[in-house]
Design a protein that fits this description.
Blueprint: E1 8-14, H1 19-29, E2 35-42, H2 48-55, E3 60-62, H3 70-84, E4 88-91, H4 100-105, E5 110-114, H5 126-132, E6 137-144, E7 154-161, H6 168-191, E8 195-198, E9 201-204, E10 207-208, E11 213-216, E12 221-222
Parallel strand pairs: 1-2, 1-4, 2-3, 4-5, 7-11
Antiparallel strand pairs: 5-6, 6-7, 8-9, 9-10, 11-12
Helix pairs in contact: 1-6
The structure holds 5-O-phosphono-beta-D-ribofuranosylamine (GRF).
Length: 226
């Protein structure tokens, strides 16, 4: 029998629309993920996701990064996260590179989602670049954060086949749908104690993940390798 455990306090950091934050919050509210969103923090006041988070009753905070030197911004961010009681942080469209010191302080508790099949297409404009290169596959990746931009151990990838009629906006919509599935799924595995980081190795159910979990558009989840 499962013993009821307290939901894991989770903070979500955003810079924009916040659709991933909303998908995570919904999964928590519906009991699909054993976490509680204790703070939604934006690095800019015009992040639309802040209003959306407030409108569903989540605690929100804006820390204007542009007004502050990076060290000062990160010090305030760290204080806000500590004060919220967060034990896990999900970067969700958070457009800021965090310092090595900040990342080290949250080692193993800091996640990011990126709209490509990493390690391919790090950085911005991934949908446009994937189309320009006539790729046949695209997707999104959830990974632990290291100081390397869009680097860090991979946990899960949502994967799609690019069709002849796909455009930047159709890919953006399809990738977002995948993201809204895989990010809550990964957070759920962490909250259930099934997924951890040991050094730079991702462990699922105590065994190293030989390759990131693969999720297709129809929702099938696959674990490959040993
Ligand atoms: C997502 O595509 C995510 O992969 C990337 O930024 C986008 C954020 O979208 N890091 P949203 O703000 O969650 O809607």
């Amino acid at each position: 029998m499962n013993s009821p455990t307290a939901p894991l306090p989770l903070a979500v950091l955003i810079s924009g629309r916040g659709s991933n934050m909303l998908a995570i919050a919904r999964a928590c509210a519906e009991g699909r993920v054993a976490a509680r969103v204790v703070s939604v923090i934006a690095d800019r006041a015009d992040a639309a996701g802040i209003q959306a988070a407030a409108s569903i009753g989540l605690p929100t905070q804006v820390l204007e990064a542009r007004a502050l030197p990076r060290a000062e911004f990160e010090a305030r961010l760290g204080q806000a996260l500590e004060a919220s009681g967060a034990q896990l942080i999900a970067l969700a469209g958070f457009m800021r590179i965090l310092s090595a010191a900040f990342v080290a302080a949250w080692d193993g508790r800091l996640l990011n989602i990126h709209p490509s099949l990493l390690p391919h297409y790090r950085g911005l404009d991934t949908h446009r670049r994937v189309l320009a290169a006539a790729e046949r596959e695209h997707g999104a990746s959830v990974h632990y954060v290291t100081e390397q931009l869009d680097g860090g151990p991979l946990i899960c990838q949502g994967r799609l086949s690019i069709g002849a009629g796909d455009t930047e906006s159709s890919l953006a919509a399809r990738v977002h749908r995948l993201e809204h599935r895989i990010y809550p799924m990964v957070i759920g595995l962490i909250c259930a104690g099934r997924l951890t980081l040991s050094g730079s190795t991702v462990l699922l159910d105590g065994r190293p993940l030989a390759a990131p979990l693969q999720v297709s558009e129809d929702g099938a989840v696959e674990r490959t390798g040993a």
